[in-house]
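call fold(seq) -> tokens
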Amino acid sequence: MSLQELKEQACKLSMSDRLSLVSAIIESLQETSHSPSERSGAIEQMRGALKTEKPAPTDEQVAAMLKERRVEKYR
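ret:
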């Protein structure tokens, strides 16, 4: 699968699945041994990619997203 195809597939995921994917990617990056400056650069790039104009979700919104995810997962 090409990078472009992967990006297109990622955009089709639910918000919670995309957040899980980002977490998995970050974890995989942390497992590799890079110099601290390389890690810092990658982290800053990820923060920039995740930055949004929207406020952070409330606890109630997060609870609703988790509930929705569980419903989808166990359907």
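Helices lie at 3-11, 15-31, 36-50, 59-73.
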